[in-house]
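Translate sequence into structure tokens.
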Amino acid sequence: MGAFPQTMYFTGLNAPVGEEVSLTGLAVEGTLPAEVRGSFYRAVPDPAFPPKFENDHTLSGDGMVSRLSFNADGTADFAIRFVETARFLAEKAAGHAKFGKYRNPFTDDADVQGVDRTVANTTPVWHAGRMLMAKEDGRPYRIDPKTLETLGSYDFGGVLKSETMTAHVRIDPATKELFFYGYEADGLASAKVAYCVVGADGVLKSEQWFDAPYCAMMHDFTISENYALFPIYPTTADLERLKAGGEHWHHEQETDSWLGVMPRYGDVSEIRWFKGPKGVHSYHMMNAWEDEGGLLHFDACLNSTNAFAFIREPSGIHLQPWEVQGALTRWTVDPKADGGEVKETVIGPPGDFPVIPAAKQGRPYDHGWMLTMNPELQGPPLLGGPVGAMFNLLLRLDMRASSPHAQKRPPQALALPPMAGFNEPVHVPASDPAHEGWLVTIVDQQIGEDQFLHQAWVIDAGNVGAGPVAKVTIPHRLRPQVHGWWVPQAELDAA
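Result follows.
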């Protein structure tokens, strides 16, 4: 195409920017907490060239990595650069798009067949002093955390055999090990999954492969203290459909979901599969944990179907966004059983981008945060992001009760005005164990026709309703992020 399509994926807040910038000495309004000293990294899809096909969408955009650094002198610096993937470099050399439909290499130009086509645009992952930009359709790219220079595709020193690595890893707070997986591990539409454990030193020490019930979009997973949990939802791939030039994903509303459970240091032959409801889907999990009786609880932002219209509509599922039903939902299983069905409990409202303190990963937890839509909003929401509208309500949830109607502490909320939206926040721990720490998030607000205000907000995580304690205005046009990561300054200095 000679120009970007005039669809929701390429207009308004989603309009491509494609500019690398570096800004220093940005003023901080308010009082910056002492603990918020470090860098907030974000993965931002942003296509360098108009796509080959008009029905392309946000998540095909080239990966950009941004860094917002909070300095010792009370100022902030901002920088953003393209991740120079093999795909980005091939199209830059040609001066136009050469890769076709989302995750379908059969629609690429002939001269780029076989080129690594991942755009590394989903999550910045920090572990063992390395920054990786990850997207689940390929291996990650390593990034210099200070300069944002691309250092190349990363396979853990030649050890990783899987062709893919998830963008959603889990890090154990006690052992500092990194747990991840790769689905479609040996190629398109494959049901093979690679389950991997990386030591605190960054060395890949275990890679085991197993067969999922079917080839599914496995966007996220969880660990508990003793188990690894693999959710399977019926957004599926088919090789013949891909060869015919079709879409990578279709959602199957009448197909069962599954939850695979195995000892996290065990053998994949020990996986037990528990059946869930038909047709449901979740992109993001809040946590998994074991109770005193040995039951395993898995908390996810669950929807009645796939949240993305670009997946639903080719599948023949035509719904308005508000017709998609959802809730923060708990699946409970006995991990020592041979299988069975999940027990399902609604524990929170609809929404997404759940966040917990890193210290509570895989452990019982009493609070968390998530984004949702404000049902009392007096005006239009901000249009943008892959779903088409940005979340405009930040919630703190008390998880100590099984029902939101019986919570010991009422949920706290921070609402935005019309035409404003939150990006996914990151959590920054406080030095005082009694304090819940801080949330850092980018807030976008439309202030005119194709005019936007972009600010970083620092929020007291235990008192979100009070609003931001500090703000930084970023004087550059930004596109919505997918995910982010917080890295303390001490860890950056050590790296």
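Note: Residues 86-94 form the longest helix (9 residues).
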